[in-house]
Design goal:
The protein has helices at residues 6-9, 12-16, 20-23, 27-40, 138-148; strands spanning 46-53, 73-79, 82-85, 99-102, 110-117. Strands 4-3-2-1-5 form a 5-stranded antiparallel sheet, with helices on one face. Helices cover 21% and strands 17% of the residues. The protein is built from 5 helices and 5 strands, in the order ααααβββββα.
């Protein structure tokens, strides 16, 4: 059985990310918020970082129609063998909201599936600013920059620009950190 989504779907943060423009660049923030929400209800939850999309996103929001999707990370919540993606609409406006697929199926869409924070990790984010939602209009700003630079950027983001580089948080002993 997949993890509960109905209650979280009613939160302001989740509703903000129901549109492609609202979902844009909010994958880490919303995935961490959902994982914390699940944990607060006694459900196992961790984060996965996905890299190397196997396909382009021509109808996507923000910079994605202009950038190589293989060069960027995307985060989802993992719980009880399921991957819950509240922000996949930033790539595919017609996708389910949220997108819920078996963790094993992620490799069909992404070249790399990396454990970011396991179900036992105490931290989901390295910096509290990474849990903030994007400023309004960031998708349009990034689309304009991508169009002007042939997708090269840079793409400023006040939540990340002056923080340490993003890196997986899980430091659990071998085998202990796998999502169930």
């Amino acid at each position: 059985m997949s993890p509960p989504v109905r209650g979280f779907a009613l939160t302001s943060a989740a509703r903000t990310c129901a549109t492609p423009e609202g979902a844009y660049a909010n994958c880490l923030a919303l995935s961490a918020r959902y994982a914390a929400w699940l944990r607060d209800r006694g459900e196992p939850a961790g984060l996965l970082a996905l890299r190397g999309s196997r396909s382009a996103f021509p109808a996507a929001a923000g910079r994605w129609p202009f950038c190589d999707p293989g060069a960027h990370a995307h985060w989802v919540t993992a719980s009880a063998g399921w991957a819950v993606d509240w922000t996949f609409r930033q790539f595919d406006p017609g996708s389910a909201w949220p997108s819920v697929v078996p963790v094993a199926a992620l490799a069909d869409r992404w070249r790399e599936v990396e454990l970011w924070a396991c179900e036992g990790c105490p931290d989901l984010l390295a910096d509290p600013r990474h849990g903030e939602l994007t400023p309004p209009g960031l998708h349009a700003q990034h689309a304009a920059l991508a169009r002007a630079t042939a997708g090269a950027g840079p793409f400023p983001d006040p939540r990340h620009d002056d923080t340490a580089p993003l890196a997986p948080l899980c430091r659990c002993p071998d085998g202990a950190g796998q999502p169930s």
